[in-house]
Specification:
There is one protein chain. The protein is of the alpha+beta class. It has 44 helices and 32 strands. Strand 30 and strand 31 form a beta hairpin. Helix 3 crosses helix 4. It is elongated.
Length: 1352
C-alpha cells in the first residue's frame, strides 16, 4: 500500500523499526518490517511516521529533515552517534549524547578557535557553538544569558558544563589568568566533594550548581559565582552495594601522601563503616594502580581489581584537587584542617553503640571496640573526647513545666537514636564543609566590575531507584520546575508570541505539569507543607505524615498509593509507608521512612554546642552562622530547620534568575545503561527525548520561527552607519530593504507586527545580521543603499512604462470615442433626413418609368401631342413635389406618403390611358401577326413548360433540403432548450438544497452551540486522557528500565499497557502479530458524556455488521447467512467490520451484490481512507502542501464531522429527488432499482508546482462523478500535461475520501454539470479505454451496469 513507501513503526527494542504499510484500519495501521521473517506490527496512527527518502543520510539540524517527527529524530541521532557525531541541533536546542569514550580533538584549542564568533549553524553542532551563541546574545542584546544543561544521571551534564566554562574562559579571559584558571579548576574541586559513583554514572553530581561567569563593560571575564543546591547528605552514611561515597574519601585513601595518611590514620576504604557498605574499589589507570600499597586496597579491590573510567583516577585526581585548593587561595594549614575533618567523618562512622547490661535508664554507651575511633574522631575534629562521648549517647533538654522550669537535663539516647545522632553529626559536618568549599571558591572569583553574566545550570537529572527517599523527591521536584520552565520558554511563550505578532502558526498541545508542582509545593496541602507541619509536632511520625499526604490529596491524579506501582516490590509497601507520584518522566514510588529526619537540618543542641567549642578553627567557622536561635532550645523540643523550605527558596531564586535572562538549552542523552561506547539503545533514548519535550519542539519547529529580532533593534544597530537618505526610512521598511539586499529567501523569514522571524536552520543568515562587526555592518549598509537605488530605478522604469501604457490607452480610447461620436451623429441625421431622402429617391426613380410612357406617346399616330402634354404635366408635378420636400423644414412622414401616393395615382392613370391608346392601334396589327405569334408562342410554351418542370424539381429539392435544415435547427433548438431547462432544474435544485441547508443550519444553531461546548469539554477530556495514557506509558517505561537495572520484574512484561486499549475487543490478533497501543484520540474517552456515548452507539447500530471477512466465509454473501448476527431486539443485523482487512473490504465492494453489506463496507472503507489521509496530512513533508484527493476549495468548504447534520442533509437530498428519480440527465441511460442518483461536478483548482515556490502555481479543472453519495470517478485536467483519471475500486487512495454531502459541492454555485459534459471530457482524455481495461475492478454499481459487468 501507499506505493510501497517505507514508514517507521514502534519497536520495543529499537524504539522504531522500518517497514511498509500492509493494512489500514480506522484506528490502527499494520506494518510489515523490511525483514519478511519478522512479525507484523499493529500500531496506532499517532505511532507510525513516514521515513525519509534517504534514510541513511544524517543532518546537523533535525529541522532540515523533510519529515519532522520523533522517529526521524531518533534515526538521525543514531546515524550521527555511530559516526562519533555526538551533537545534533533541534532548531536552537542542542542534543548531546554521551560517547563514553574520548574523542580526539573534539575539544582542543584549535576547535575552540574555529567556533569563536561563528554563527550558529555555520559550523557542525557543538557545545562550543551554544556557549558562543550565549556570549554573543549577551553582547548584542545587552542581556545576561543562561545555559540549562539537563538530562538524566550519566548523560554527560557535568562534562558539558566543564567544556562550556572552558570555552568562555579561553575565548574571553585574559589568556588563562588567575580568575579564568580558578573558574576552570572550580569544577574538579567541587566534583571531588560533591560527585560520586552511582549505578548509572561513575561521576554523578550529587548536588546542583548554577555557575555564573561575570563579564565587565568590555565583555571580558571578570569573575564568577557558584550557587549550589541540595547536597545528598544521606550518601555520607550509606550507599547501595555498587555505589560509592563522595570521591574525596577515596582520593584521600588512594592519592594522599603516606605521611598525611599516617597523620589522619587512613587505611583501605573497607576499614570504614561509612564506606564498606558500598563499592570500595578505586578508579585507577594502569600506571597509577601500581603506586598503591597493599594496605590501601580493600578486599573487594583485591578480588575484582580497580574501576576504569576515562575521566576519573582517584590517585592522580587527589593532586589535582589539592592544587585546585591552592589556586583558590586555601593555605596548607586550611587544607590540612579540611582533610582532618574529612578523615574525622570517616572515623566518626566507626563509632558503634551498645546497651549496657546494668543500666536501667534505657540509654546506650559507646562500645569498647570504638574507643580508638572515638579518640581519633575527637582529635581530628578538635573536640573533647568525653564531651563527644556524652553528646553522642545523650542530649540536653530544657524543662518547660514544674518548679525547675528552664533547667537543663540530660536525656539518654537509645542505641538507634545514638546512631542517628552520630550520622546526623557526620552529615552536618560534611555539608557545612561543602558549603565552606563553595564559599572559598566564590571568594576567589570576585566580580565587582560585572555588567552581565552567563550562567550555566548543572543539576541532578530525574532520578528513580527501587528505594527513593527525600533526596530523590527534591531532585525530581526541581526537574519538574525546570521542565515547566522549558515548556513555558520554548512552547507556551513561543506560541503566545506568534499569536501576538499575527503569525498563523498551528497551536501545539503539550503536557502542563503545573498540577504535579502544586501537589508538591501547594500551600497547606502540598507535600512540603505537610512535611514541615509534621516536623513541628512533638512526636512526628512517618505514618501520620504519609496518611496526611493521601488524605489531603485524595483525588489528585498525580498522587497514588504504592500498590499502584508497576514494580512488584513497590506493591509490597503499605499505604502509610510511601506514596507514588506521576512525574513528567514517569511514576516514582517514594519511601517516606526518613522524610522527617532528612527534612530537619538541625543538630541536637549538645552536638552543636560541642562543635562550636571545637579547637579546630575551621570547624568552628563553618558552624558559626551568627544566628543565636540555632544554638538554643525551644520549650523542650528539638530545633527544626526545614531542608525542603530552604530548597524551595533557593529554587525560587534560581527560577527568577532564569526567567530574567535569555536562555539556551542543552539536552544531554544517555545512550545505554551499560555505559559503553557505540551502543545505541533506541527505546531508552526515545524515552529521554519524549520526557525532554523534543517531540513537541519538533511539532512547533515544523512551522515555527525560533529566531527573531525587533525592527527597532535591527535599525538601531545600523543607524550610526546610515547616510541621511537611508536614516529617514521606517525601521520595518529598512529591514525589508536589508533582507532584499542580502538576497534572503522569502520562505525563510516572516514579518510580524514588531519583529522579524526566521525559520529553523536559518541562524547563519540571522547571525550575519545581528552579530556582525562594524566593518561588515558598513558593507551591509552599502548593499542596502545599492538595493534602494536599484529599486528606485526599477520604479522609475515601471512608472515610465505605466505612462506609456496609459498614453496608448488614451489614444486607443480617443480613436474609438471619435468612431462612437460619428456613429451617433450619423444616426441622428439619418433619423431626421432619412424619410425625405428615401421619398426623393423614390420620386427620382419614377423618372425612369416616364421613359416608357414617352415612348408610348411617340408611337401614337393619333393624339400624339395630347399624350406628350400629359407626360410633361406629370414631370412638372414631380419637380414641384421634390422642391416642396427640400424647402419645407418640418414635413411629416404622413404628408410625404400622401404626396407620393397622389403622384403614383397620377402616373398609373396616365400610363393606363397611354396603354389603351397604343393597344387600340396595335390591335389591328396584332391580329395580323397573331397567327404567327401563336405558333411561336406554342413552341415557347412547350419550352417553358419543360423549363418549369425542371425548375419545380430543383425547387422541390431545395425545399426538402430547407425542411431538413429547419428540422435539424429545430432539434438543436429543442436540445438547447432542454439543456437550459435541465440546467435551470439543476440550479433550482441547488437553490432548494441551499435553502434547505440554510434552514437546517438555522435550526442547528442552538444545537451547534451546545455541541460546541460539549466538544470543548470532550476535547479537554480527550487531551487529558491522552496525557494520562502517555503518562501511563512513561510509568511503564520507567519501571521496565528500573527492573532491568535492578534485576526485578514488572507485573506485565509487555512494554505497553493493554488495559487502556480497545485492541483486545476490536481486532483479532493474528498468529505472529505484535499489537501496540492505539492513539488515545480513537478510544472511548468520553465517559463523562452519556449523550455522546448514546449517539455513538446509535451510529454504530445504524450499520449492518459482519463478524467475519469474506475470506473466512464458506457460504455466499447473502443476508441472513452465517456471517450475520442479530441485535437484541431481533429487528436488525449488527456486526463489526473493523476486523476486516483493507483489501477484503475493497474486494467486497467490487464484487458483492448484497445492498446492506455493500453500504456497510463502503462506509467502513471511506472511514479508513479518511483517517489514513488525515495521518498523511499530519505527517507531510516540511513546507510541502498536502495533495488532497480533492481541491483545497472543496476541503475548505467541507462540512465538519457532525454526523447528525450530514445525515439530515443526505436524507433531505434523497427526499427532494424522490419525485424525479433516475431522470435522463441525472442517472444517464442506465436505469434500475439498484442504481442510485448520479451527479457530476466541475470546479477550478490551483496548486503549487514547487513547495518552495508557492507563487508558481498550476491551474486546471477538477471533475468528479458521484454514484449516490460515494465518488465513482475523478479527473484532473491540466493545460500543458496529460489529465489524471482515477476510478473507485482501483485508485481509492488518491481520490476524494469524503461523501457528497460532506463535500458541500451540492450547494456550490455553478459546480454541478450535466452527464454529457462530464462524459465528453472523460472520453476526450481516454477515460473510455481506461474503463474497459479496468472494468473488472470498478466498485461503482452504475459503472458496472454501464460496462456490462455482471456480479453474481
Amino acid at each position: 500500500m501507499d506505493e510501497g513507501r517505507e514508514v517507521w513503526a514502534p519497536d520495543p527494542n529499537d524504539g522504531y523499526k522500518l517497514g511498509r504499510i500492509k493494512d489500514i484500519k480506522s484506528d490502527a495501521i499494520t506494518v510489515q518490517p523490511l525483514n519478511p521473517n519478522e512479525k507484523p506490527i499493529i500500531a496506532g496512527y499517532d505511532q507510525v511516521f513516514p521515513c525519509e527518502e534517504y534514510r541513511d543520510k544524517d543532518v546537523d539540524d533535525n529541522c532540515a529533515l523533510m519529515f519532522l517527527n520523533e522517529a526521524t529524530l531518533l534515526n538521525n541521532l543514531r546515524l550521527r552517534y555511530m559516526k562519533n557525531a555526538i551533537y545534533t541541533y533541534v532548531a536552537n536546542i542542542l542534543i548531546a549524547i554521551n560517547p563514553y569514550m574520548e574523542l580526539q580533538k573534539l575539544y582542543s584549542k584549535d576547535t575552540i578557535k574555529a567556533y569563536m564568533g561563528r554563527s550558529l549553524g555555520s559550523m557542525p553542532p557543538h557545545v562550543f557553538a551554544i556557549a558562543d551563541k550565549g556570549y554573543r546574545d549577551m553582547k548584542v542584546l545587552k542581556e545576561s544569558q543562561s545555559i540549562i544543561v539537563s538530562g538524566e544521571s550519566g548523560a554527560g551534564k557535568t562534562e558539558s558544563t566543564k567544556y562550556i566554562l572552558k570555552y568562555l574562559t579561553e575565548c574571553w579571559g585574559t589568556h588563562a589568568g588567575p580568575i579564568e584558571q580558578r573558574i576552570v579548576e572550580s569544577n574538579p574541586l567541587l566534583e571531588a566533594f560533591g560527585n560520586a559513583k552511582t549505578m548509572r554514572n561513575n561521576n554523578s553530581s550529587r548536588f546542583g550548581k548554577f555557575v555564573e561567569i561575570h563579564f565587565d563593560a568590555k565583555f571580558q571575564v571578570c569573575g564568577g559565582h557558584i550557587s549550589h543546591y541540595l547536597l545528598e547528605k544521606s550518601r555520607i552514611c550509606v550507599q547501595n552495594e555498587e555505589e560509592r561515597n563522595y570521591h574525596i574519601f577515596y582520593r584521600l585513601c588512594a592519592g594522599a601522601p603516606a605521611n598525611l595518611r599516617q597523620q589522619l590514620r587512613l587505611t583501605s576504604p573497607d576499614q570504614f563503616h561509612y564506606l564498606r557498605r558500598g563499592c570500595t574499589q578505586y578508579f585507577c589507570r594502569k600506571e597509577t594502580e601500581k603506586s598503591l600499597n597493599q594496605n590501601q586496597k580493600s578486599q573487594q579491590f583485591l578480588k575484582r581489581g580497580c574501576l576504569r573510567d576515562i575521566t576519573i583516577d582517584d590517585v592522580s585526581d587527589f593532586q589535582l584537587t589539592d592544587v585546585a585548593m591552592t589556586h583558590m587561595g586555601i593555605t596548607n594549614e586550611e587544607k590540612f584542617s579540611i582533610y582532618s575533618i574529612i578523615a574525622g567523618v570517616l572515623h566518626l562512622g566507626n563509632i558503634t553503640f551498645e546497651d549496657p547490661q546494668d543500666d536501667t535508664t534505657g540509654g546506650c554507651q559507646v562500645t569498647s571496640e570504638s574507643t580508638e575511633s572515638l579518640k581519633l574522631t575527637s582529635h581530628l575534629l578538635g573536640c573533647d573526647e568525653e564531651g563527644l562521648r556524652e553528646s553522642l549517647v545523650s542530649r540536653i533538654m530544657q524543662t518547660s513545666h514544674g518548679t525547675r522550669r528552664g533547667s537543663a537535663i540530660m536525656v539518654p539516647l537509645k542505641m538507634s537514636e545514638a546512631q542517628n545522632a552520630r550520622d546526623a553529626l557526620a552529615k552536618a559536618v560534611y555539608a557545612r564543609l561543602f558549603d565552606y568549599i563553595v564559599s572559598r571558591v566564590n571568594q576567589s572569583l570576585p566580580f565587582t566590575s560585572s555588567k552581565s553574566y552567563i550562567g550555566v545550570l548543572d543539576i541532578a537529572g530525574f532520578e528513580y531507584f527501587q528505594m527513593n527517599s527525600f533526596e530523590q523527591f527534591c531532585i525530581n521536584y526541581c526537574n519538574e520546575k525546570l521542565q515547566q520552565f522549558f515548556n513555558e520558554r520554548i512552547l507556551k511563550e513561543e506560541q503566545a508570541l506568534y499569536e501576538k505578532e499575527g503569525l498563523k502558526v498551528k497551536k501545539i498541545h503539550y503536557v502542563d505539569n503545573q498540577d504535579c508542582i502544586d501537589l508538591i509545593e501547594g500551600k497547606g496541602v502540598g507535600i512540603f507543607d505537610i512535611l514541615d507541619e509534621e516536623n513541628k509536632l512533638p512526636r512526628p511520625a512517618t505514618e501520620h505524615f504519609t496518611a496526611e499526604v493521601h488524605k489531603k490529596n485524595k483525588d489528585h491524579y498525580r498522587l497514588s498509593i504504592p500498590r499502584k506501582s508497576k514494580l512488584k516490590m513497590h506493591r509490597e509497601i503499605r499505604d502509610d509507608e510511601g506514596f507514588l507520584i506521576r512525574h513528567f518522566a514517569g511514576a516514582v514510588c517514594y519511601h517516606t521512612g526518613q522524610f522527617i529526619e532528612k527534612n530537619n537540618d538541625a543538630l541536637h543542641t549538645s552536638l552543636e554546642v560541642l562543635v562550636l567549642k571545637s579547637k579546630s578553627q575551621l570547624l568552628k567557622q563553618i558552624f558559626d552562622t551568627g544566628d543565636q536561635q540555632t544554638t538554643g532550645q525551644v520549650q523542650g523540643k528539638l530545633n527544626f530547620i526545614s531542608v525542603g523550605n530552604k530548597f524551595r527558596s533557593q529554587l525560587s531564586l534560581l527560577m527568577e534568575k532564569l526567567r530574567s535572562t535569555g536562555t539556551s538549552f542543552i539536552r544531554c542523552i544517555k545512550p545505554n545503561s551499560k555505559m559503553i561506547d557505540h551502543l545505541f539503545e533506541g527505546t531508552q533514548i526515545l524515552t529521554q527525548l519524549q520526557c525532554s519535550g523534543m517531540p513537541s519542539v519538533l511539532d512547533l519547529m515544523h512551522q515555527g520561527f525560533p529566531s527573531r529580532t525587533q525592527f527597532a533593534e535591527l535599525y538601531a544597530m545600523y543607524k550610526h552607519y546610515m547616510p541621511p537618505n537611508i536614516a529617514r526610512l521606517d525601521p520595518r521598511l529598512f529591514c525589508k530593504a536589508l533582507f532584499k539586499a542580502l538576497g534572503l529567501n522569502e520562505n525563510d523569514f516572516k514579518f510580524g507586527l514588531t519583529k522579524v522571524f526566521f525559520r529553523p536552520g536559518k541562524f547563519a543568515e540571522f547571525d550575519q545580521i545581528m552579530k556582525s562587526d562594524p566593518e561588515h555592518l558598513a558593507l551591509l549598509i552599502q548593499k542596502v543603499q545599492k538595493w534602494l537605488l536599484q529599486m528606485r530605478w526599477r520604479k522609475c522604469q515601471w512608472c515610465a512604462l505605466s505612462v506609456i501604457k496609459l498614453k496608448n490607452k488614451i489614444e486607443y480610447r480617443k480613436r474609438f470615442f471619435t468612431t462612437i461620436q460619428s456613429c451617433i451623429r450619423t444616426w441622428r441625421l439619418k433619423r431626421e433626413y432619412g424619410p425625405r431622402i428615401k421619398c426623393m429617391t423614390k420620386i427620382r426613380l419614377l423618372h425612369q418609368q416616364l421613359e416608357p410612357m414617352q415612348r408610348l406617346a411617340g408611337q401614337l399616330k393619333k393624339d400624339k401631342e395630347q399624350a406628350q402634354a400629359k407626360v410633361a404635366a406629370l414631370i412638372g408635378e414631380m419637380n414641384v413635389m421634390i422642391d416642396k420636400i427640400q424647402k419645407t423644414k418640418h414635413v411629416s412622414q404622413s404628408e410625404i406618403d400622401r404626396f407620393y401616393d397622389n403622384l403614383m395615382r397620377m402616373m398609373d392613370g396616365t400610363l393606363l390611358r397611354l396603354q389603351e391608346m397604343v393597344n387600340e392601334e396595335r390591335v389591328a396589327e396584332e391580329q395580323e401577326k397573331l397567327r404567327k405569334i401563336q405558333d411561336e408562342m406554342e413552341k415557347e410554351r412547350k419550352k417553358k413548360e419543360e423549363e418549369e418542370r425542371t425548375r419545380r424539381a430543383e425547387e422541390e429539392k431545395k425545399r426538402q433540403e430547407e425542411e431538413e435544415r429547419r428540422r435539424k435547427e429545430e432539434e438543436k433548438r429543442k436540445r438547447e432548450e432542454e439543456e437550459r431547462r435541465q440546467k435551470a432544474e439543476l440550479e433550482e435544485r441547488r437553490k432548494k438544497e441551499e435553502e434547505m441547508r440554510k434552514k437546517m443550519e438555522e435550526e442547528e444553531k442552538v444545537h451547534a452551540e451546545v455541541m460546541k461546548k460539549q466538544r470543548e469539554i470532550e476535547e479537554a477530556a480527550r487531551l487529558l486522557q491522552q496525557q494520562r495514557m502517555e503518562q501511563e506509558r512513561k510509568d511503564r517505561e520507567l519501571a521496565l528500565r528500573l527492573a532491568a537495572e535492578d534485576q526485578s520484574l514488572v507485573e506485565d512484561p509487555s512494554r505497553y499497557d493493554y488495559s487502556v486499549s480497545r485492541r483486545r475487543t476490536v481486532h483479532n490478533k493474528a498468529p505472529g502479530q505484535r499489537i501496540l497501543p492505539l492513539p488515545s484520540g480513537n478510544m472511548n474517552l468520553f465517559n463523562s458524556s452519556p449523550q455522546l456515548n448514546s449517539q455513538m452507539m446509535i451510529q454504530q447500530q445504524s450499520l449492518p455488521i459482519y463478524s467475519q471477512p469474506p475470506s473466512a466465509m464458506t457460504s455466499p454473501l447473502t443476508p441472513g447467512n452465517d456471517f450475520a448476527a442479530f441485535d437484541p431486539f431481533g429487528k436488525q443485523k449488527f456486526a463489526d467490520l473493523s476486523k476486516w482487512q483493507y483489501a477484503e473490504l475493497r474486494d467486497t465492494i467490487n464484487t458483492s451484490c448484497d445492498v446492506e453489506l455493500l453500504e456497510a463496507c463502503r462506509q467502513e472503507f471511506q472511514r479508513r481512507l479518511r483517517v489514513y489521509n488525515e495521518w498523511r496530512m499530519k505527517n507531510k513533508k516540511a513546507n510541502d502542501p498536502f495533495d488532497h484527493g480533492a481541491p483545497e476549495s472543496v476541503m475548505e468548504m467541507a462540512l465538519p464531522d457532525d454526523f447528525a447534520l450530514i445525515e439530515r442533509l443526505s436524507n433531505a437530498n434523497s427526499a427532494s429527488n424522490n419525485a424525479n428519480q433516475l431522470n435522463p440527465f441525472v442517472a444517464g441511460k442506465v436505469t434500475g432499482a439498484q442504481v442510485e442518483e448520479q451527479r457530476y461536478f466541475r470546479i477550478p483548482f490551483s496548486r503549487p508546482v514547487d513547495p518552495f515556490q508557492p507563487n508558481n502555481v498550476v491551474t486546471g479543472w477538477w471533475l468528479a462523478h458521484f454514484d449516490g453519495k460515494w465518488i465513482a470517478r475523478q479527473m484532473e485536467i491540466y493545460p500543458n500535461r496529460p489529465a489524471v483519471l482515477l476510478v473507485a475500486g482501483v485508485d481509492d487512495m488518491k481520490m476524494c475520501e469524503m461523501t457528497l454531502p460532506q463535500t458541500g459541492l451540492t450547494v456550490k454555485q455553478n459546480a454541478e454539470i450535466l452527464e454529457q459534459e462530464f462524459e465528453q471530457e472523460w472520453n476526450r482524455n481516454g477515460g473510455a479505454a481506461m474503463l474497459q481495461v479496468r472494468r473488472n475492478q470498478v466498485s461503482s454499481k452504475y459503472l458496472q451496469m454501464k460496462l456490462g459487468v455482471v456480479r453474481n
